[in-house]
């Protein structure tokens, strides 16, 4: 079967062909063409269009085309579900969803910059997703170095298990301190990592988190801390806005500007000017 999508792929338009060829149609052929040619060529070549608006194989809500293929074809491999969160985070600029999303975006963007032929880009990209699948399938618990935060989080959860009163649990108090301590050095904290370290199901942690963290989701809480850190850094003129975006864990300055304005009502440069006037 032939599949067709927009040219110059980076995330979803490489990840989806990998998923289709590995789990749906081993003989699948993929075509990359200019945006305006996708639909006309799909009809002429009897190819399935994907990852563009108003076709079946596309984004739905917060989920990307990779998610849809998993659901459409009833792929129940747990490793694929792990990959789906990473791909979604990279493809939708939600790097808080998984710590690996930032790395996947960086590698994919760099590969697209270096390789100008889309078919060759797909061939090389397939190797990236083969490697990511092997990690998700077999190596998630492997660590290059021992992360000291893991033992701390396990201790927090043990205390929570012993805590039976209706007050704010000790795990919530100590987790808040740990997150604040780590925000300067471990900006890739993810809910999945914390859940695994605490040995508690991520859905439970996600559901309970907001009760003890300013009525915010995990992602919103981390972003709030990043913005608070950015405000402190803005007071020092020696830091450029690009440096502050990097130091606070944002993927690029435009992402930083957008989130900062959402939280403060001003973009970073305007906010810095207001600080200097005081």
UniProtKB/TrEMBL annotation:
Taxonomy, superkingdom: Bacteria
The answer to keyword Glycosyltransferase applying to this record is no
For this UniProt record, the keywords arranged alphabetically read as follows:
DNA-binding, Transcription, Transcription regulation
Entries under InterPro entries matching the protein: ChrB_C, Homeodomain-like_sf, HTH_AraC, HTH_AraC-typ_CS, Tscrpt_reg_AraC-type_HTH
**Matching Pfam families, A to Z?**
ChrB_C, HTH_18
> What residues does the HTH araC/xylS-type domain cover?
173-274
Give the matching PANTHER family: ARAC-FAMILY TRANSCRIPTIONAL REGULATOR, HTH-TYPE TRANSCRIPTIONAL ACTIVATOR RHAS
Q: What is this protein called?
A: Chromate resistance protein
Q: Which organism is it from?
A: Algoriphagus aestuariicola
